[in-house]
UniProtKB/TrEMBL annotation:
Lineage: Bacteria, Bacillati, Actinomycetota, Actinomycetes, Micrococcales
Domain Carbohydrate kinase FGGY N-terminal: 29-255
This protein's UniProt keywords: Carbohydrate metabolism, Kinase, Transferase, Xylose metabolism
Protein name: ATPase
Gene Ontology biological-process entries: D-xylose metabolic process
Biological source species: Cellulomonas uda
Length: 543
């Protein structure tokens, strides 16, 4: 008996066969991103469509009052995420990859990974989440005439100098998490310009660290650390599409201890999660912007011209191609929402209705749409850590309401989502006052997997249309895979053209306009939010 195969089935089988051939021939690109709570791996075909994924859950630890990840956990997590991706490939296509047309590594930006001349880690990794660099950041900002946020690598380094930490004389190399992983995989101490711009200010004309500011730093530390040349301690800067090394045999073994993966694949410059978010949303041209929502939340706005003055609320960084970007970075994003989802998930389980975390999260988010436009008088702060935008060095998650407020599940969830966007909205107001105009605002991150909810409430928070693409949930792992694929095309076209013509030409984009009632409701919420910051500050002092 002959089985009938539908045309759709034939198409699916033909596509799977093409993907299998691409995997075997090494025409795919692998992207790996080390996020705050997940390490994700994404494999894309020559058309940059995702063909397989893998992931590993992890979490930072607060050790001696510093947020950190152990390097052993970095490699265990990378290996698990890669093994998970390989298993997905094998299940879908019946083959195991041995090489790739390109590999990219992305990770949380900023922070401090310091090594000595023997390549030994001097102190535990200090992540972007630490806010202990206030004196250094303030002094450097004044010296450079350029905002140096608390989390920037140079702030961590200079704070260590000010504190006369014993390890400082032995520092031979400082890098970010993405730069560290890339170095171990390739032997190359390089960094993508977007990630480098979160270590030290970049001169967008030279696509390198600002020479005058480097000289100022060296003079500043000359008495304490004679002979210091900061440029010798930092990774070399590369822009998107430039050669950044190849996978070594040792690097292949680190990523894939089974020995299946062979050496030789080219790697694109390692980037930060901000840069990969711009790529994942095709937001690399002037007047475009994107918002990434994860453990932290940040907006990246590509500028047409420099800002008129320095703003403490804004970082100046770059796209992966080196164009100037204003960044509103909030240390606290969706983590507190995730904590509440776990509480409600457990409640459902106790009642005998266990549900998956995604189902619980989705149900709670959808409930927020039925809440009052202003959240019913409820107020939520998602501050698990300090928040520089609002001047807080530590955080205490809070839920506050007045006696006459309306406590419902819908209002509770709307207040929580509004709270996740509150600090971001304060930073975006600064850009609006600068006269910055936008043609498009794109959003990505796991929060947008639940269609239409966070997107609609974010549109209210920024009072602008918000677009979400079909790959929004894949986020930075897909973005760095696209940058890895771009290696094969950089000689022919710039990154913006490649994204527009090759990657996003047929992309499905859903745009939500701000609802006037939501905009008014969020404005009322934000007014309470600003006033209530006094309560948040009191909580950090008292508890």
């Amino acid at each position: 008996m002959t089985e009938n195969v539908t045309p759709q089935g034939v198409d699916q089988e033909a596509r799977a066969a093409r993907i299998r051939d691409d995997i075997v021939a090494g025409r795919t690109a692998l992207g790996i991103e080390l996020g705050s709570t997940r390490i994700k791996a994404c494999l894309v075909g020559p058309d940059c469509a995702p063909v397989a994924t893998g992931a590993h859950e992890w979490e930072n630890q607060l050790v001696d009052r510093r947020w950190t990840y152990a390097l052993e956990d970095v490699w265990a997590g990378l290996q698990d995420a890669y093994a998970s991706l390989v298993a997905d490939v094998e299940q879908r296509y019946g083959v195991r990859p041995t090489t790739f047309g390109g590999i990219g590594v992305s990770a949380m930006m900023h922070g401090y990974l310091a090594f000595d001349a023997s390549d030994e880690l001097l102190v535990p990794f200090r992540t972007w989440r630490n806010t202990s660099t206030g004196p250094a950041a303030a002094e450097l900002s004044a010296l450079f005439g350029h905002n140096i946020p608390l989390r920037w690598s140079v702030a961590h380094l200079y704070q260590a100098v000010l504190d006369d930490e014993p390890h400082v004389p032995d520092v031979a190399f400082v890098t970010t998490l993405a730069g560290y992983v890339h170095w171990r995989l390739t032997g190359e101490k390089v960094l993508g310009i977007g990630d480098a711009s979160g270590m030290f200010p970049i001169d967008t004309a030279t696509h390198d660290y600002d020479a005058a500011m480097l000289a100022s730093f060296d003079t500043l530390v000359a008495d304490r650390r004679p002979g210091t040349r900061l440029v010798d301690l930092l990774p070399a800067v590369r822009v998107a599409g430039q050669d950044a090394g190849r996978l070594t045999a040792a690097g292949a073994a680190l990523l894939d201890p089974t020995g299946t993966l062979v050496a030789g694949a080219p790697l694109c410059p390692p980037e930060g999660d901000a840069g990969t978010g711009m790529v994942a949303t095709s937001s690399v041209a002037p007047r475009t912007a994107n918002i990434s929502v994860g453990t932290s939340i940040f907006a990246m706005v590509v500028l047409e011209k420099p800002l008129s003055q320095v703003h403490d609320e804004l970082d100046l960084v770059t796209t992966p191609s080196g164009d100037l970007v204003a960044m509103v970075h909030c240390n606290n994003g969706a983590s507190e929402l995730g904590e509440w989802a776990q509480v409600f998930g457990r409640f459902a389980q106790v009642l005998g209705h266990p549900s998956s975390p995604d189902d619980v999260f989705g149900a709670l988010l959808r409930e927020a749409l039925d809440g009052d436009a202003d959240g019913g008088g409820l107020l939520a702060y998602n501050y698990l850590s300090g928040e520089p935008v609002t001047g807080l060095t530590e955080g205490r998650p809070l839920f506050v309401r007045t006696p006459d407020s309306r406590l419902t599940l819908a209002n509770f969830m709307r207040a929580q989502v509004y709270g996740a966007f509150g600090t971001l909205s304060l930073g975006m107001r600064v850009l609006a006052a600068e006269g910055v105009e936008l043609d498009a605002m794109y959003a990505h991150g796991g929060l947008f997997r639940t269609a239409g909810v966070a997107q609609r409430l974010l549109a209210a928070a920024v009072d602008a249309p918000v677009a979400v693409g079909s790959a929004a949930g894949e986020g930075g792992a897909w973005g760095i895979a696209v940058l890895a694929a771009y290696l094969q095309h950089a000689a022919d076209r710039d990154l913006g053209t490649y994204l527009a013509q090759d990657v996003f030409a047929d992309a499905q984009i859903d745009v939500v306009e701000p609802d006037p009632d939501d905009v008014r409701g969020f404005a009322a919420y934000l007014e309470r939010y600003e006033a209530g910051l006094a309560v948040e500050r009191a909580a950090t002092d008292a508890i």
